[in-house]
């Protein structure tokens, strides 16, 4: 079982009782400054290291300038079972499977960061590395989607993969292939991949040939998603789309509209797309991201019943603890907590969206409206900083949840490559012995998984730095991809997060 998506607490017990006791105190804690404080970290270093983690997740033939010296080439026969080349791409987390839905979401959000915070990434000297991370994903996606109305969406049998604790360079487990096509549709994966390619085409607009390839494939995948409506359950129970496919369809159409400004996408967004006010942004639920992107365009959702600006505001109002409409639980220490297992994605994702939205609100001289209560953009930036600072060390335990960064960082990420010593190519691994040899020992990993943001503490701010506490210690690419824009803003603007009027949303 892939533990990061199971509701297992980091402390071995539920947090419901704690939630009932402290819920009424949280707004006061946050507003008083006792939680957030005036802490400032070396955000540029955190940004650099967060990108390094993505490089540690690469599959395929590594480039000559590979910066993760304990990583080597892996998955070099991926696709061979179908006589195609599916090398490359990313392992999503601590195992050796390449899942299409989270991989595409990682690329989409990386591209958004590169667009929204381009000046900050340039100033930090990291724009090139982010672009390389995006291209590592898009090159792989183009291979997966080479044929019309067909896409390879997963490489590796997760059940067999999870029975062997081994680094990807030496994995003996089958590289089983999974696909969607006209007979086995997968609307969520096709639409998310279309979003990833459209957003990436904007990033690479100066490379016209490559951008055109990305955009053409994005349009085809969007049409495929729209014309073959069905949820693909082949990645379940590891990546089940609990939210359905309407959010991905809106998300894909939004990015295609952003890239092209074509009326066909605007018509779908305003007349056909289904949207909803929700309190979560994640690899499974994209509504707030699309709503924030669409807020400046004066478009209405659900046949004109509600504006996307209103729905974007509703997301903010549901998250902030000091509004009359707040829904999201916040721990006593001040961290957003939706569920155990990769909870940090909600922390980094909210911080990212709040910073993007605050910039537009400043430019438009607007506020978030929570009923009749206006919320200034500065409050969104304050909350975003608090969430990122919590992960970096401003929390009840006074420790970092980013490997290799800050005070008392984690040493036992739930990660096969980092916890297994470097073995010679061709080394035969005994899967039955692998867990006893490399998973079970209570000792730091031999390889530092620099920049990996842990799944994070539970709802009572408890954290266990053990490989077997996977809800706490398993990292994921999309936790980091969502963090990169927020860290770039903090690194480039300083801890006060001065407003920026620069963005890179110009169409193709």
TrEMBL record:
Its EC number is 3.2.1.4. The lineage of its organism: Eukaryota, Viridiplantae, Streptophyta, Embryophyta, Tracheophyta. Gene3D superfamilies: 1.50.10.10. The keyword DNA-binding does not apply. Belongs to the glycosyl hydrolase 9 (cellulase E) family. InterPro entries: 6-hairpin_glycosidase_sf (IPR008928), 6hp_glycosidase-like_sf (IPR012341), Glyco_hydro_9 (IPR001701), Glyco_hydro_9_His_AS (IPR018221). It catalyses: Endohydrolysis of (1->4)-beta-D-glucosidic linkages in cellulose, lichenin and cereal beta-D-glucans. One of its GO terms (molecular function) is cellulase activity. The active site is at 414. This is Endoglucanase. Pfam families: Glyco_hydro_9 (PF00759). GO terms for biological process: cellulose catabolic process. Coiled coil: none annotated.
């Amino acid at each position: 079982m892939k533990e990061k998506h199971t509701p297992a607490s980091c402390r071995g017990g539920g947090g419901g009782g704690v939630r009932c006791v402290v819920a009424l105190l949280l707004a006061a804690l946050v507003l008083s400054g006792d939680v957030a404080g005036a802490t400032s970290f070396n955000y540029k270093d955190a940004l650099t290291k967060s990108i390094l983690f993505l490089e540690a997740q690469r599959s395929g033939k590594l480039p000559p300038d590979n910066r993760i010296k304990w990583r080597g080439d892996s998955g070099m026969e991926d696709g061979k079972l179908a006589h195609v080349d599916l090398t490359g791409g990313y392992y999503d987390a601590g195992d050796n499977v390449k899942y299409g839905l989270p991989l595409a979401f990682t690329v989409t959000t990386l591209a958004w960061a590169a667009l929204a915070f381009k000046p900050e990434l340039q100033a930090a000297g990291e724009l090139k590395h982010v672009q390389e991370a995006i291209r590592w994903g898009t090159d792989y996606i183009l291979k997966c989607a080479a044929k019309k109305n067909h896409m390879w969406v997963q490489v590796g049998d997760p059940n067999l993969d999870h029975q062997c604790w081994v680094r990807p360079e030496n994995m003996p487990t089958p590289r089983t292939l999974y696909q969607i096509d006209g007979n086995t549709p997968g609307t969520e994966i096709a639409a998310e991949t279309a979003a990833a390619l459209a957003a990436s085409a904007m990033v690479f607009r100066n490379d016209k040939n490559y951008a055109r390839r990305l955009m053409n494939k994005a349009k085809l995948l969007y049409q495929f998603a729209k014309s073959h409506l069905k949820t693909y359950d082949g990645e379940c129970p590891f990546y089940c789309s609990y939210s359905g496919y309407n959010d991905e369809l809106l998300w894909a159409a939004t990015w295609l509209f952003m890239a092209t400004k074509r009326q066909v996408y605007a018509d779908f967004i305003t007349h056909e797309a289904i949207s909803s006010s929700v309190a979560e942004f994640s690899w499974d639920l994209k509504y707030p991201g699309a709503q924030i992107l669409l807020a400046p365009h004066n478009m209405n959702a659900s046949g004109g019943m509600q504006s996307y600006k209103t729905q974007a505001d509703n997301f903010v109002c549901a998250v902030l603890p000091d509004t009359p409409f707040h829904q999201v639980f916040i721990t006593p220490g001040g961290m957003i907590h939706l569920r155990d297992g990769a909870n940090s994605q909600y922390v980094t994702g909210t911080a990212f969206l709040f910073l993007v939205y605050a910039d537009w609100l400043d430019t438009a001289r607007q506020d978030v409206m929570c009923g009749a209560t206006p919320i200034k953009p500065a409050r969104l930036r304050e909350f975003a900083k608090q969430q990122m600072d919590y992960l970096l060390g401003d929390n009840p335990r006074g420790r970092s949840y980013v490997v290799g960064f800050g005070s008392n960082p984690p040493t036992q990420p739930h990660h096969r490559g980092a916890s297994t010593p470097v073995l010679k190519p061709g080394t035969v691994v005994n899967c039955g012995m692998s867990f006893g040899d490399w998973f079970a020992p209570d000792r730091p990993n031999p390889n530092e998984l620099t920049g990996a943001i842990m799944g994070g503490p539970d709802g009572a701010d408890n954290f266990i730095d053990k490989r077997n506490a996977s809800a706490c210690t398993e990292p994921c690419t999309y936790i980091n991809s969502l963090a990169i824009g927020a860290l770039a803003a903090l690194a480039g603007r300083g801890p006060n997060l001065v407003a920026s009027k620069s963005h890179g949303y110009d169409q193709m």
